[in-house]
Amino acid sequence: MMSPNRSSGPTPKPLTALLVDDEPHAVERLTRLLSVHPEIVVVATASSAAEARQLLTAAPAHGVPGALDVVFLDVEMPGENGLAVLESVAPETVVVFVTAYPKYAIQAFGVGALDYLLKPVDPDRLEQSVDRILKQTILLRDTSAGIAGDDDHSPVASDQASPHSSPSLSSDTTAFVACATGGRIERFQISDIAWIEGLRNYTRVGMRSPQRDSLFRQRLGKWQADLPTKTFVRLGKSLLVNVTILEKIQWRSRDETLLTFVGRSDSITIARLATIRLRQFLESPPP
Q1: Domain total for the chain?
Q2: Is residue 167 one of the residues assigned to a domain?
Q3: Are residues 91 and 161 in the same domain?
Q4: 196 and which of 47, 122, 240, 256 could share a cystine (Cβ 3.0–4.6 Å)?
């Protein structure tokens, strides 16, 4: 996977990170792996869900400078598991799950996690995750400059498409959708969408021609209801992909598959169940 050039333009302020894990050696190893990425600085660690909540809800009082940008969160810990921490995470904070158990992947992406890393964390896989974090935090920071629309005016109340809805957009349609940054409207061809990732009340859309990621204040269920079902397949609670421009499907392990799309130099990673769903769709597409 090609990584974006991080050296162009002025050096941005490093992102602040909280590591939550009850295993000291796991915290030390992840801290060491992150040390080669100066874009992210570990400012605090927690060994339990309760300690993490305390840091997240009263960060300045505990020596953490303001709101945290990213939380690397273990799942299985003594007492409460990591999922219990999510209610204390601010909407603008990115969450990456780090665990030895792939069985939690569906839950993690279902609650809006940006990424899911398996222990022991592979340095190359972590680099991919850091790239995603940097892209996402830039989009979310831009959101604070002006958000178009709000939840009260959202066309859908949940992230699931209505079973009675029918697609209103075809692949050759030109769409006009309100961005979550700057109050602007973005115009694009539906066929330029490679993938759509659900992020709570937002969606991040990977496009081509030119390659770019855009953040929209529109939920994934609305996209699914509007887009043609022969073109876009939902691989889980938080991902839609355009199967007509899939260029390569690369199996990396039992739990990870890389998808590459025509017109994009990067790849996205999907878990085992999403891979099974994609295979089923490709073998038996809708009529």
Answers
A1: 2
A2: yes
A3: no
A4: 240
The pLDDT assigned to 91 comes to: 75
Q: Closest by alpha carbon to 70, among 3, 26, 134?
A: 134
pLDDT of residue 173: 65
Q: What is the pLDDT of residues 227-251, one digit of tens each?
A: 888 899 999 888 999 999 999 999 8
- The residue ranking higher by pLDDT, 8 or 23, is 23
192 and 86 share one domain = no
User: What are the residues whose beta carbons fall under 8 Å from the beta carbon of 222, sequence distance 6 or more?
Assistant: 154, 155, 156, 161
In a domain, 6, yes or no: no
Give the domain extent around 106. 15-143
pLDDT per position as a tens digit, 36-77: 999 999 999 999 999 999 888 875 544 455 578 899 999 888
Residues 213, 237 within the same domain: yes
With b meaning 16 or more CB within 10 Å and e meaning fewer, what string describes 53-92?
bebbeebeeeebeeebbbbbbbbebeeebbbebbeebeee
**Do 163 and 276 have their domain in common?**
yes
Examine residue 120 and state whether it is found in any structural domain, yes or no.
Answer: yes
